[in-house]
Design brief:
It contains 16 helices and six strands. It is mainly alpha-helical. The N and C termini lie far apart (118 Å). 32% of the residues are buried.
Length: 523
């Protein structure tokens, strides 16, 4: 229907006069006229200015998944769309990133289907996503203002220019939702939806960015953040596709980063990394709430880690005093037990390196006449396992230079057997003792043995058994009972305050027997 409002025609005439003075703007008007002609069925063909060939028309469509797990893959396809005028590429974008105007294609330097990976700048992605969200909402408000005959010069153009100016401050920021030739929709709710998805991705990126370079980050919290980021990028992809099957480069870059990081750090991302497992844009508000909660957990985790560092520092200090002043052990061990318990019950793994570094120098000073607190038992047990599996800094025997204690113990025990009481039987430790000391066998009475004392007496009574080793902290039997059985069968009893490594055993045998084993009682 012809528009009869003179005000409208006056405004239109002023706008056309202003645009006609600019060559690029004239091309936009030509394209607009072509769109109108095509829509009304009056066009006989594509319009091109005299002497100019019609440029190729392009758009984006969703591609099939790259491989079986690529949820962000897109490819280019040809389909009618008004061409972009010369110079328009910079209207709502800045920089030269290899991103093609309107299409959102990424350049060949980024990872696509196994190609090389180029690190992304999460700070810029976060800023671009927030600006794109603002642009999406402005696109709806702008349309509403024009429909209500707002003054373009005062009510629309200043906001256009402000958005453009801010986009140009961000490298590679293409506001495709606001571009004259960009994808669009007649459904205003889609703009609100995609704006919410851009904001959600920005929040998820901010969360991961806050943890990415934190060497003390909590591994569980980081994995949770990656899963939230995966959901955010997937729901954005689904929302963006509704705009003429478009592909957003920030979403694509986040997807590629996630795939690369999960593979490099061996982290399993549970969902939202496949085309057949999409995120739901309707859950953007819910996801933002979960991201906010996760951010709070990260803050708490940082506080916890900071406190744990302080306790570890104090633990190392107390252990150093113990080493320097062993006569005051009775005063300091309870303090050490309390700090170990605080760390262990606070979530620190018993295998944590700082436990070993603090406690290893004083392992031999642990009291063997009292039962250790459960947390301390667990930590010390793991330290002993570490000692069994790793060389003992500079003291581990080698083929060229066996430790003197090992050589002497092997001379005394060659061809004979040992009884080892306590702990859990480990074939590797048992075999190492047999080979290094030339033993006939090791009878291991483990902590799990319900008939431990009977098994001990049966083993100790054998003639080829030279002595009994008691890992006092890991035995479920009292020292007195074990000692009584050893005296009954005239077998020396050697207590092990450390682990079961060859060096530990040989050192304790030589220290506690003085190398004076009465072999007449065992042969």
């Amino acid at each position: 229907m012809p528009h009869s409002d003179p005000v409208f025609f006056e405004s239109l005439s002023r706008m056309i006069a202003r645009l006609a003075s600019d060559p690029d703007s004239r091309q936009v008007l030509r394209q607009l006229a072509q769109v109108v002609l095509d829509a009304t069925g009056d066009a006989t063909g594509s319009y091109s200015p005299p002497g100019e060939a019609a440029p190729p028309l392009r758009r984006m469509r969703v591609a099939r998944a790259i491989g079986t797990s690529d949820g962000g893959g897109y490819e280019e396809a040809t389909s009618p769309r008004p061409p972009m005028a010369a110079g328009e590429a910079d209207t709502y974008r800045s920089g030269d990133s290899g991103i093609r105007p309107r299409t959102g294609l990424i350049d060949a330097g980024r990872a696509v289907g196994g190609e090389k990976f180029v690190p992304v700048d999460f700070a810029l992605i976060e800023q671009r996503c927030r600006l794109k969200a603002e642009g999406a909402r402005w696109a709806v408000a702008r349309r509403r203002l024009l429909a209500n005959r707002a003054d373009f010069t005062t009510d629309v153009e200043p906001l256009d220019r402000d958005l453009i100016a801010r986009a140009k401050l961000l490298p590679n920021c293409f506001l495709w939702l606001n571009h004259p030739n960009g994808p669009s929709s007649n459904d205003a709710s889609r703009y609100d939806e995609v704006a919410a998805c851009f904001e959600t991705l920005a929040e998820a990126v901010a969360l991961v960015r806050s943890m990415e370079d934190d060497k003390d980050r909590d591994a569980v919290e980081f994995e949770n953040a990656l899963n939230l980021l995966a959901e955010a990028q997937s729901m954005l992809r689904i929302s963006v596709v509704k705009f003429d099957n478009y592909a957003d480069t920030d979403q694509r870059d986040v997807f590629q980063w996630l795939k690369h990081t999960a593979n490099e750090q061996q982290i399993f991302i549970r969902r939202f990394m496949r085309l057949d497992d999409p995120g739901d844009p309707n859950l953007a508000a819910d996801l933002q709430a979960r991201i906010k909660a996760a951010a709070g957990s990260v803050v708490e985790a940082r506080k916890r880690i900071k406190q744990q560092k302080k306790v570890f520092s104090k633990l190392a200090h107390k252990c150093q005093i113990l080493k320097d002043q062993p006569d005051h052990a009775d005063d300091y061990w309870p303090v050490v037990y309390a700090m170990v318990d605080e760390l262990y019950t606070g979530g620190v793994l018993s295998t944590h390196r700082d436990f070993r570094e603090a406690l290893l120098p004083v392992m031999d000073l642990l009291p063997d006449n009292e039962e250790l607190p459960r947390s301390m038992q667990t930590v010390v047990k793991d330290i002993e396992r570490y000692l069994d599996a790793a060389p003992e800094g500079g003291e581990e025997p080698t083929e060229d230079r066996p430790h003197p204690d090992v050589l002497e113990t092997a001379r005394l025990l060659k061809g004979r057997s040992l009884v080892l009481v306590g702990g859990d039987r480990r074939e590797s430790a048992e075999q190492a003792l047999v080979e290094a000391l030339g033993l006939k066998s090791v009878h291991w009475v483990s902590t799990q043995d319900q008939d431990g004392l009977e098994s001990l007496e049966s083993a100790a009574s054998q003639a080829d058994v030279a002595l009994v080793l008691l890992a006092i902290r890991w035995s479920s039997h009292s020292y007195g009972d074990v000692k009584a059985i050893c005296e009954k069968h005239q077998k020396p009893l050697v207590r092990l305050p450390g682990g079961f490594s060859v060096n530990q055993v040989a050192s304790q045998v030589m220290a506690q027997t003085g190398g004076r084993l009465d072999l007449t009682t065992v042969g």
